């Protein structure tokens, strides 16, 4: 009954709205969102429709934020200026960013600070609870603080409040923005249920808004020139897996792979290769170590636009291996066998050159 139709209704409604147009804005700012994805979006390349369950996940986040606002109003804190519009501009750039703040929080003494609320999955929340907020969130907060200077120049701090959608646990970061230095400082972190004393962090992000404007400008330049920037993430990264441009982005990768250089000098990672070979021989004990080393080797190969090279006594090969995977979007189970397809899979090998 409902379990079969609710997601379909959400997907259909999302498609009918059709108002998900690209334009530079604070919610897209920051270094973590893939720039290649944003160029596709800017160019108007058709994206894979967002599944109904995904639409509901985003919609759930909005409701979590509204629920939190209601709880704040029942506290001794005041909340006002919800969804107030702000604009952010920079000299040297012709575009202006438009955004809406979540609100302004006022304490019992009348002190005000900007409030930004996020509702995230348990996994994301746990990662940030280690004292490492998402850089995109910090950038967005600083954008809003910069925009608020026009209306409320006394507000120079933001409270980034993050709710765990699975456990209803809260996490908050106090963020300062220093305009003259274009500097963000994540001053402290407080986790609900873990005491009332905040953890002092003082993590700095230099040039945070300028970097965002430069990224938006690069997107515009790439779109006007009709070229794509390099991929920001590997194919198996969760950001790639959930990207609506995943199929388009990786469609011609086999041809790209064949054009990569071979025999390049990789002498700077000879020691990493030695550790990788050692980890490969004791796989059960060193799986985590091997994956970390693999990522380092792959990074150097990507920087050199290569798929094969020599690192001292080691030969490094990155090859594409065909594999069969199931396209789950084609299930009914009755025709599951028809859903098998061939797809290339990269396999990195490192072997030591035997000395004669």
Report what the structure shows.
By secondary structure, the protein is α+β, with helices and mostly antiparallel strands. It has 2 domains: 2-214, Alpha-Beta Complex (Lambda Exonuclease, Chain A); 261-352, no CATH class. It has helices at 2-17, 35-43, 52-73, 122-128, 135-148, 208-225, 238-241, 246-250, 253-258, 270-281, 283-303; strands at 78-80, 85-88, 97-100, 103-106, 112-120, 157-164, 170-178, 183-191, 199-206, 264-265, 308-311, 314-326, 340-352. The strands form 3 sheets. The protein has a 7-stranded mixed beta sheet with strand order 1-4-5-6-7-8-9. It has a 4-stranded mixed beta sheet with strand order 10-11-12-13. Strands 2-3 form a two-stranded antiparallel ribbon. The model has no long low-confidence stretch (mean pLDDT 88).
Q: Could you list some keywords that capture this structure?
A:
alpha+beta; 25% strand; 13 strands; seven-stranded mixed β-sheet; four-stranded mixed β-sheet; 356 residues; Lambda Exonuclease, Chain A; single chain; 2 domains; globular; 11 helices
Summed up, what is this model?
The protein is α+β, with helices and mostly antiparallel strands and 356 residues long. The protein has helices at 2-17, 35-43, 52-73, 122-128, 135-148, 208-225, 238-241, 246-250, 253-258, 270-281, 283-303, and strands at residues 78-80, 85-88, 97-100, 103-106, 112-120, 157-164, 170-178, 183-191, 199-206, 264-265, 308-311, 314-326, 340-352. It has eleven helices and 13 strands.
């Amino acid at each position: 009954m409902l379990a079969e139709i609710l997601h379909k209704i959400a997907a259909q409604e999302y498609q009918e709205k059709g108002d998900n147009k690209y334009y530079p804005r604070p919610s897209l700012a920051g270094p973590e969102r893939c720039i290649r994805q944003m160029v596709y979006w800017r160019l108007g390349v058709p994206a894979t429709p967002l599944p109904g369950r995904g639409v509901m996940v985003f919609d759930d986040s909005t409701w979590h934020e509204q629920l939190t606002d209601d709880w704040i109003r029942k506290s001794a804190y005041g909340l006002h200026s919800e969804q107030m519009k702000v604009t952010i501009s920079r000299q040297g750039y012709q575009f202006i960013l438009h955004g809406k703040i979540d609100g302004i929080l006022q304490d019992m003494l009348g002190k005000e600070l900007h409030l930004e609320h996020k509702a995230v999955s348990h996994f994301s929340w746990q990662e940030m609870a280690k004292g490492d907020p998402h850089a995109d969130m910090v950038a967005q907060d600083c954008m809003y603080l910069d925009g608020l200077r026009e209306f409320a120049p006394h507000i120079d701090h933001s409270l980034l409040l993050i709710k765990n959608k699975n456990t209803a646990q809260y996490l908050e970061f106090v963020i300062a923005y220093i305009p003259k230095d274009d500097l963000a400082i994540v001053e402290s972190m407080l986790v609900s249920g873990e005491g009332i004393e905040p953890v002092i962090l003082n993590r700095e992000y230099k040039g945070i808004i300028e970097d965002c404007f430069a990224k938006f400008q690069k997107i515009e330049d790439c779109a006007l020139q009709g070229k794509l920037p390099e991929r920001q993430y590997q194919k198996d990264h969760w950001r790639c897996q959930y990207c609506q441009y995943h199929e388009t982005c990786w469609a011609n990768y086999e041809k790209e792979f064949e054009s990569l250089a071979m025999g390049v000098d990789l002498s700077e990672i000879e020691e990493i290769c030695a550790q990788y070979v050692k980890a490969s021989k004791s796989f059960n004990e060193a799986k985590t170590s091997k994956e970390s080393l693999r990522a380092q080797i792959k990074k150097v190969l990507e920087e050199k636009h290569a798929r094969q090279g020599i690192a001292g006594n080691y030969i490094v090969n990155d090859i594409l291996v065909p594999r069969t995977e199931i396209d789950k979007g084609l299930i009914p189970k009755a025709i599951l066998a028809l859903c098998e397809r061939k797809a290339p899979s990269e396999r990195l090998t490192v072997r030591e050159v035997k000395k004669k």
